[in-house]
Design goal:
mainly alpha
Length: about 80
Amino acid sequence: MEELYETGNIDLQIIFVPGSGDELRMKTIRHIMAIAAKDNPEMTKKALDDWYLAEKKDYAAFAVKCPMNGELKVQEANIQSMLS
């Protein structure tokens, strides 16, 4: 899929399913959405790889590797609209 995307043969959209009250899941979704909002496809791809290819899902290590500040709070409204 990655090769098809990079050659322009397909478009991809990632849809996150927040919910179930899992705070780790919510933090991760918020963080990845904040990175994607920067509109830098390479940064977004790297962040997705850093999270999804990691053997152990360690949000604290991920957050250090991909720092975001106030951008995380901005994503809260987007998450709430997904839940509605």
